[in-house]
Give the backbone structure.
Amino acid sequence: MEAKEIIARRVAHEVKTDMLVNLGIGLPSLVANYLPKDVHVFFQAENGVIGLGARPPEGMEDPDLTDAGGGFVTALPGAASIDSAMSFGLIRGGHLDMTVLGGLQVDARGYLANWMIPGKMVPGMGGAMDLVAGAKKVVIAMVHTAKGAHKILPECTLPLTAQRRVSLIVTEMAVIEPTEAGLVLKERHPDVSVDEVIAATGASLIMHGDVPPMQLT
Amino acid sequence: MEAKEIIARRVAHEVKTDMLVNLGIGLPSLVANYLPKDVHVFFQAENGVIGLGARPPEGMEDPDLTDAGGGFVTALPGAASIDSAMSFGLIRGGHLDMTVLGGLQVDARGYLANWMIPGKMVPGMGGAMDLVAGAKKVVIAMVHTAKGAHKILPECTLPLTAQRRVSLIVTEMAVIEPTEAGLVLKERHPDVSVDEVIAATGASLIMHGDVPPMQLT
Amino acid sequence: MKHACKPEQAAEMIPDGSVVLIGGFMAVGTPERIMDALVARGARNLTVVANDTAMPGKGIGKLISAGAVSRVIASHIGLNPETQQKMISGEIEVELVPQGTLVERIRAAGVGLGGVLTKTGLGTPVEDGKPTVEINGETFLLETPIRGDFALLAARQADYVGNLEYSLTAHNFNPIMALAAETVIAEPQLIVPVGVISPDSVKTPGVLVDHLIERAA
Amino acid sequence: MKHACKPEQAAEMIPDGSVVLIGGFMAVGTPERIMDALVARGARNLTVVANDTAMPGKGIGKLISAGAVSRVIASHIGLNPETQQKMISGEIEVELVPQGTLVERIRAAGVGLGGVLTKTGLGTPVEDGKPTVEINGETFLLETPIRGDFALLAARQADYVGNLEYSLTAHNFNPIMALAAETVIAEPQLIVPVGVISPDSVKTPGVLVDHLIERAA
């Protein structure tokens, strides 16, 4: 199984019925493909719809209905159009139950950096800072290391996205929960040992007894 | 002609085509009856409609369509429903061209007091403070004196409605414009002398040459 | 999908001492059946946040008459003599807030803002005891957010997922209050199947609504 | 009633050096005919306030490619490599603003607030040089209002008085920008008679709209 699929499958278990969920562009958007059948949620696209659906049939695309990445989508029955003020009012006002975002780095404090690499890539933060500051639950979906370099660090070296501890980090190797005391290793991939996770992680990991395998079905 | 009618007729001349206008409850609401035929304006009711119309035919009242005084009204073709956030966004954001409000006192600075008499009447300010602080033009429509007591004073003795100079005071005796330099007597009722206006006014009045009669047709 | 509940069940959910945001302007857009149920339950010690307290026998006026309210935050109480009497006798504590400031304070709580910076109320008793903030040489009053334990809303129609539409001047505070309470209970005049309300007609997304009051018998 | 104008006339109204708020999210909900006319006129030195700069050949991307823009205030420029190149070369100055903060800053200008108090951006480079305000022990960033000389909006349909409706994810920044500019120009896909748009469907009251672009040939 590819790293992205592992991550998306595991994150899908965090999604519960009746949640309002925002999935970031790229890897996070894959989570929608792996939801348990009995889970009914509304996905928000921060550009303006609650009740985002899959790509429309060929030839039926509406140029006025896209996701935050600009791709054509559908609206499910019960959907609501929202302007940017309502959309970010929901996000910043604590009405968004969960956001799933990609990450460049996460550190021992649980702080995320995911929006710029100084001198190299400055695309802008878009809605990321609002999402991390405002969502009830912030799940970071990212590969564990970048070309061998640690992405989970004692302290982020890249500019932060927010001064708020994220709720969960899900990688292809492990599930890690940032807490007041530090990063807690909650689960590991069935084929990966705790020592391998520790070696791939730049920050200290706390363990409370055994580290069970991730659920990937 | 009754004092109220004189005032309403004169204020009506301040209303120009394409303005967005808010009329207060009571005397100010009479202004709508005296608009020149060729003047087309939208009246805002701050409780939620732009394009307020007269009372509906008997038996056709909609309980969900009232003015700020709670009376049944109609909506004209081209009307828009607005919630309180939009309604006061328009008022406070400088989008309201003119408001006409009653007054208890106005002073030499042009400051208005119209919302409470300590120890006697504390109805609440409703939208009055927002209207005075935010409307482009604030016209005070009030009788010149209250049972012989001055209502136009050197300084208001009642709590202020806002720390903003109103645009115009229209009474049954005179039209007075508050300016940086003080209150300027602009017009007088045709049957009233300048001396009579001065006697009925507690604050000094500035005159620039002749004081022409008010237009009441 | 929401499960409709009876007004009595809604009243049971709301403990004595709760802070309740109640939609409506002079009882237009107020959930009357919830009001009746709160009176029937003998609710006590409520803090009511609303534009006004209507008049005896209507909307919030019913709660006032029944002795259910110990505190009112409103812009206007002038048309309900009972509220005024109970304020004077000390039975009800009243905080008067300019209408535009009231809606922005509720919105601030709903969309996660730290407060409201406004010119409304400067130089008036509304300013007393509140901090001011200087921004580019201009002074603004800092008003704090108002959040409710419950928001009690009236709506024109709802669908099964809780999407709400409002009608004409019955919008008023309802759409903003929907953002600013722990638990949102809506009393629609009609409940229609999912899909009857177009996404573009939804004023309050169903994700904000916790409970719908069942159709009237 | 509005008089429809040609896109070229709109472009003539907008002088070089103007601050223009432009609706749209990745060119969805952007007035393309006004964009084309600005390019055709050879507009220069515009400050563009918008969510993003779309991509080359679409929406605001056309203005960027044509060299019409000297300053951008946006939340995201990552999908337009030309904006990034021109930022690096110094041809375009870019201010990156979190999306939720951007819409609230525009709204603050539109509804007369002194600024926005938000947690978004705290502890990140967004905070640099900005004051913070302590409220009840919590720290908020103070962000200032953003006002435009012009707002250039796309709408689904307009009626003759300028009331606007938007569709699905083409709402985005348009309804808020309608509040925050000296002159508001809307480009609707359809123009319909007064009365076709119900008061409850109006998202932007016509009183906010100064000019409508005539129907496409």
In short: The mean pLDDT of chain D is 97. The CA atoms of residues 128 and 175 of chain D lie 29 Å apart. Residues 99-111 of chain D form the longest helix (13 residues). The helical segments of chain D are 7-13, 32-41, 60-65, 81-89, 99-111, 174-177.
